[in-house]
Design a protein that fits this description.
This protein is an alpha/beta fold. The protein is about 45% helix and about 15% strand. The protein contains 22 helices and 17 strands. The strands form five sheets. The chain has a six-stranded antiparallel β-sheet with strand order 2-1-6-5-4-3. The longest helix is centred in the last third of the chain and has 20 residues. The protein is elongated, with a radius of gyration of 28 Å. The structure holds adenosine-5'-diphosphate and magnesium ion.
């Protein structure tokens, strides 16, 4: 199909116009005078991880308050009744150059507010903004350790975590590797009243058992050969007033489990080689991807410690059970690695679709690592062909397996299949129309919609 017949067929009606706006890589965002969002184009998906349907009708303040963008400018524009352009950061880490234009009526009252927002990264590629130093970015990024989610289960996890963060209870975080357990532990610390105190992690799977004890408890001067002459403070002591995160606690050796249980219960311990008890004021958060219950049964984990830890437990669901998080996470990592590697890679729609359906055994860590690799190795647009074979085939197979959830989806799917089949054989909208007994204009429209990828034929 050529561009000219695309345009003649188009007779710019409302539907066509809205479609065109969705092709804009810049975001277009319109508020009415009550600051309700009355229009936004598809770019809101890559900037905020939100579908337009979830945005339109909302009060803009509600989204700004939830941190979807920062800083907020609408109040300023309403007051000054003049256009403003500023730099904003979104919840996914996109840096936008946002221009807000108030549209006034004859009485000089604001009728509409029209916003366009473009990713700053693309300006940087044009070498504008060169002195806007990279170093200041970390410091001013208000979303540094935020947990991205659109999933109800995870939202509930965060709500619950916030609640228990305020209490000083010991917490056990369970979930597969890479689901965000460590991130959640930090979130709990930052939302509790110890947030100004230290947050220290010991990863029980990464440290040899012999070292783990001295790392945790520290030792007194001369307590063993090769030991530092003046002794060494352990993590438990250094974390005084803060939080100790025992990561992968399922890998902690049994003798240490007994000692840790004592620390949890009494908030006291004796350093290696010492004879005086030390008291500490710490909160303990533990995490594991192991089935501790099973380990207790096979005597690999102490039952008493398990019950002590298990008082408050939180489950992080695997990524495959939170499909709505995949696209926002992809864009978040894309922004991050584009920035780190000074690239400006985009990602194609079918690639996003395939990644959304892949089952992610390594969860968010696997997704993060993949996006970093793709940013480095792919061409300007990350395409479905850049994906590793395993992901490509499983993703596509999962898409084939999805049964439509609604009647509309089923009808859509059937329409698409019939049009593609017919167009493949008939190769013209006139013959497709005849074949499927529909009008030629309708056939042409459906062909445009469903057979885009063949339009060069
Ligand atoms: N919801 C999330 N939003 C953004 N990044 C996330 C999210 N969950 C996990 N990550 C990132 O994914 C990686 C793996 O998370 P991590 O907390 O280390 O998982 P786990 O401890 O369960 O193995 C980390 O780099 C983390 O920052
Ligand atoms: Mg971890």
């Amino acid at each position: 199909m050529t561009l000219s017949n695309f345009l003649t067929d188009l007779d710019l009606n409302m539907e066509a116009l809205l479609k065109i706006l969705d092709y804009s890589s810049d975001e277009i965002f319109v508020l009415n005078k009550d600051k309700k969002i009355i229009y936004v184009n598809d770019a809101c998906k890559k900037h905020y991880g939100l579908n337009k349907e979830d945005v339109i009708g909302k009060a803009s303040m509600e989204l700004a308050d939830k941190g979807y963008w920062y800083p907020s400018i609408f109040p300023d524009v309403l007051e000054r009744k003049e256009p403003i352009t500023i730099k904003q950061t979104t919840i996914l880490g996109a840096e936008l150059l946002t221009s807000v234009v108030p549209i006034l009526n004859d009485q000089k009252e604001v009728e509409l507010i029209v916003t366009t927002a473009r990713e700053l990264q693309s300006y940087k590629m044009l070498k504008v903004n060169e002195n806007d130093s990279k170093n200041s970015k970390e410091a001013e990024d208000p979303f540094g350790s935020s947990i991205i989610t659109n999933n109800e289960k995870v939202k509930n996890v965060l709500k619950f975590a916030k609640k228990v963060a305020a209490a000083n209870s010991t917490i056990l975080i369970l979930g597969e590797s890479g689901t965000g357990k460590s991130l959640l532990a930090q979130y709990i610390h930052e939302n509790g009243n110890r947030r100004t105190g230290p947050f220290l992690t010991i990863n029980c799977a990464a440290i040899p058992a012999e070292l783990m004890e001295s790392e945790l408890f520290g030792y007194t001067p001369g307590s063993f050969t090769n030991a530092n002459r003046s002794g060494k403070k352990g993590i438990l002591e250094c974390a005084n007033g803060g939080t100790v995160f025992l990561d992968e606690i399922g890998d902690m050796p049994l003798p240490l489990q007994a000692k840790i249980l004592q620390v949890i219960q009494e908030k006291k311990f004796i350093p290696i080689g010492g004879n005086k008890e030390k008291s500490v004021d710490i909160r303990i958060i533990a995490a594991t991807n192991k089935d501790l219950n099973k380990m207790v049964k096979s005597k690999m984990f102490r039952e008493d410690l398990y019950y002590r830890l298990n008082v408050v437990d939180i489950n992080m669901p695997p990524l495959r059970e939170r499909q709505e998080d995949i696209v926002p996470l992809i864009y978040n990592f894309l922004y991050k690695f584009n920035r780190n590697h000074e690239m400006n890679k985009l990602i194609s729609k079918d690639c996003l679709e395939c990644l959304t359906h892949y089952l992610w055994p390594g969860n968010i860590r696997q997704l993060e690592n993949l996006i970093e690799k793709l940013v480095i190795v792919s061409n300007d647009v990350i395409s479905i062909d850049d994906l590793p074979e395993g992901i490509y085939y499983q993703g596509l197979a999962q898409i084939e397996n999805t049964t439509p959830a609604t009647l509309n989806e089923a009808v859509e799917l059937a329409k698409k299949e019939m049009i593609r089949k017919s167009y493949k054989v008939n190769k013209s909208s006139r013959r497709v129309a005849k074949d499927l007994q529909i009008s030629q204009t309708y056939a042409a429209r459906l062909i445009r919609e469903y057979c885009q990828d063949w339009s060069e034929d």
